[in-house]
Amino acid sequence: NAPVVSNFIRNIIDEDLASGKHASIVTRFPPEPNGYLHVGHAKSICLNFGLADDYQGKCNLRMDDTNPEKESDEYVQSIKDSVSWLGFKWDGEVRYASDYFQPLYDYAVELIKAGKAFVCDLNAEEMRAYRGSLTEPGKNSPYRDRSIEENLDLFTRMKNGEFPDGSKTLRLKIDMSSGNVNMRDPVIYRIRRAHHHRTGDTWCIYPMYDYTHCISDAIEGITHSLCTLEFEDHRPLYDWVLDNISIGCHPRQYEFSRLELLYALTSKRKLQALVNDGLVTGWDDPRMPTIAGMRRRGFSPAGIRLFAQRIGVSRGENIIDMSVLEGAVRETLEAEAPRVMAVLDPIKVTLTNFEEGVTASRAAPFHPHHPEFGEREVPISREIYIERDDFAEVPPPKWQRLTAGGEVRLRYSYVIKCDEVIKDATGRVVELKCSIDHDTLGQNPVGRKVKGVIHWLSCEHAIEAQVRLYDRLFTEPRPDAVRGEDGEYVDFRQFLNPHSLATVTACVEDVVLKAEPETRYQFERLGYFVTDRYEHQPGVKAVFNRTVGLKDSWAK
Ligand code: ATP
Ligand code: MG
Ligand code: MG
Q1: Residue from 21, 92, 33, 31 nearest 59 by CA
Q2: Neighbour tally for 129: CB within 10 Å
Q3: Core-most of 189, 294, 314, 423, by most CB within 10 Å?
């Protein structure tokens, strides 16, 4: 386990516990079920659930479901799956903001009775005009001085469905001249006849996010309500609502910066556009920065948690290179993944002095430092495959692989020498004729040094596998932040990497065919690969996704 790294939120919690303000902490992760979670949410999950674990507190999972049109049970399920898969447990049952529709309504009535909320008939456009701007104060709504009785009556009738959608809102009566636009009599209820994924058609009025969020936190007894920095300007409203209703709990909101991952997008809406346009195969396409996508790509929960720890939590910019995520994943897979050999782009090699029809084999460990992973037999026969990249007729400087007339060691096996290069009419190498040095099994050749070691497979023993080689989805580090000559943002879909997926038929050791879906391997010298969660069929069909390459081991 990596050491705990402190941050400003931990410092606040330490103080609150030391001063006796709280005996223990309660946090929450409050996604809106309007899409699949992405790597930015993973940061928030690791923060909220991680704090609860470290401080022996609790963390709730709450669906922030107050926008019925965009929300669905599919998304709820995917959110639960993602949180569990990352290795976290929420306290008790999943919570839903929609569970609180009745108390939210009752508090609104309380605010009306206290003269602190009113029913407003301005439409959206008028409301905008009355709202003012950053530099200009707003104007009071002409409906602001309705009597309490009239407001109570109208609000009840809004709830009862007497008015058309959008014709009235309930607004707080705060301050239209506030420097903070969020405090200018914000709308807390709107009329919308939309079917809700949980409450069905029970309600035709729905509470707004700012109003719902603070009350939901208070109902659940949240101690530290952590959100991203764009909510900083909403904090006065969060506090105002809780200060003006009779609720016995006032959680404190603290903001931290959003994660932005280069060469990826961290916005559900934009990821949704990729899915809708068919530019990826779905939310869980292995190229997607969603948790479901990263899972399918083969990233490990431990790797993502390590990443979250490394990027830290602060109020400063959090723009992170993909290599940090890949590095953390690679580090966790190094010790976890058994190693086998695969050849992605084979050339046939005939071992001319190896007897035909004979198989020799040698046991090889699945991991050099983990004998408990066991071992398997690696067979050799007269015809083998090596990687096309591991042969160069005219080798570049420092070449340590096979070359015409040169020698190389086959991993776990003999040293071979290339005697003849066979090409087709186009000059492409189609076969190599090599001889093995029979005295080099498990020992160095006599009188010379052979430094290079390459991976290989016996043709008749290897199986075929479909291997999907993924690269970054975008060619631009910040695909949604590029502006054209007109100063407008360029559509991020223009920066999709046309080479983000290459599918090859590779050869792999036959042991992998039995593997369950989502089994991670290191293919020696190539990288980490995972059997596909859906398409790999144990015993029938091997389908792999490349998770991440190995750090390049030879000089570029
Ligand atoms: P999106 O714009 O992708 O829909 P969101 O903030 O609207 O993101 P929510 O479902 O409301 O998505 O997010 C749930 C929690 O995850 C919130 O507390 C939010 O602050 C946090 N979160 C979302 N995106 C990020 C990010 N990029 N980095 C860190 N935390 C994030
Ligand atoms: Mg949100
Ligand atoms: Mg959003």
Answers
A1: 92
A2: 10
A3: 294
Q: Which residues, listed in sequence order, are joined to residue 429 by a DSSP beta bridge?
A: 423
**What is the rounded radius of gyration, in angstroms, for the C-alpha atoms of the chain?**
31
Residue type, 304: I
347 and 423 co-located in one domain: yes
The verdict on whether 93 is a catalytic residue reads: no
Spot the catalytic one: 10, 192, 258, 493.
Answer: 258
Nearest listed ligand to the Cα of residue 271: 1
Per-residue confidence band for 553, with pLDDT thresholds at 50, 70 and 90: very low
Residue among 41, 49, 67, 95 whose CB has most ligand 1 atoms within 8 A, to mutate: 41
- At 4, the pLDDT band (50, 70, 90 cuts) reads confident
Which pLDDT belongs to residue 556?
33
Catalytically annotated residue among 268, 296, 468, 525: 268
Asked if the model's pLDDT at residue 457 lies above 50, the reply is yes
Q: Which residues surround ligand 2, an ion (CB under 5 A)?
A: 32
Q: Domain tally for the chain? A: 3
429-437 and 346-351 beta bridge pairing: parallel
245, part of any domain: no
Q: Within this chain, do residues 151 and 163 fall inside the same structural domain, yes or no?
A: yes
Same domain, 489 and 455: no
**Distance separating alpha carbons of residues 556 and 549, to the nearest angstrom:** 15
Is residue 290 a part of any domain in this protein? yes
The atom number, within ligand 1, closest to the CA of 318 reads 28
Does the C-beta of 153 come closer than 6 Å to ligand 1? no
Q: What is the pLDDT of residue 3?
A: 64
Sequence letter at residue 513: L
Structure confidence at residue 5 (pLDDT): 78
Residue minimizing CA distance to atom 27 of ligand 1 = 40
Strand, helix or coil for residue 276: helix
What whole-number percentage of the chain has pLDDT above 70? 99
